[in-house]
Amino acid sequence: MRIMVRTDGDLIVEATPDIGYVHRGCEKIAESRNLIKNIPMLERPNIADSSHLNWSYIAPIEELQKVEVPERGRYIRTILCEINRIASHLYGMAIMAGIFSGHTTMYMFGFGDRELFLDLAEMLTGARMTFSFFPPGGVRRDLPRGFKEKLLDTLNYLERHLVAVDRIFVNNPVFIARARGVGILRKEDAIKLGVVGPVLRGSGVPCDVRKDAPYGAYDKVDFEIPTFKEGDSLSRWLVRFEEIKQSMAILRQAIRDIPEGPIARKSPIVVPKGEAIGRIESCRGEINHYVVGTGSDKPYRVKMNTGSFKNLPALPFLLKGARIGDMPIIYGSLDYWPVEADR
Amino acid sequence: MSVVAPFWEGLKHVFKKTFTVKHPYQRHELPDGYRGRHVLYLDRCTGCGICAWICPEKCITMVSLADQRIYPQNPEKRFPQYWYVRCCFCHFCTDYCPTAALDYTKDYDLAEYEKELIIWSPERLSKIPERYAEYRTKFHGWAGVDHVPKT
Question: Could you report the predicted ipTM of this complex, rounded to two decimals?
Answer without folding.
Answer: 0.82
